[in-house]
């Protein structure tokens, strides 16, 4: 049985920086983006993939419902809320986020979705 605070929705943001800016952007994104998100979402995960010349970041936030997500993101939860310095760091500004319904959770997810 799913509790009212169980994550049912994942909101996924992706962005890429030049490798030379990756460490600085990771700190900036955490301080000005992820921390705010952590106060609203059930849980947040951040991922980083260093490639040749660029680094991709992905932030996944977990929500109990679309309504809960909309209370944070606005009526259109796919809309991007760029941080003030995103244009300085990112190779291109993302135009939307991906929203997925969580169909099943198998095994121990490490409490990730509990914040």
UniProtKB/TrEMBL annotation:
It comes from the Bacteria. This is Antibiotic biosynthesis monooxygenase.
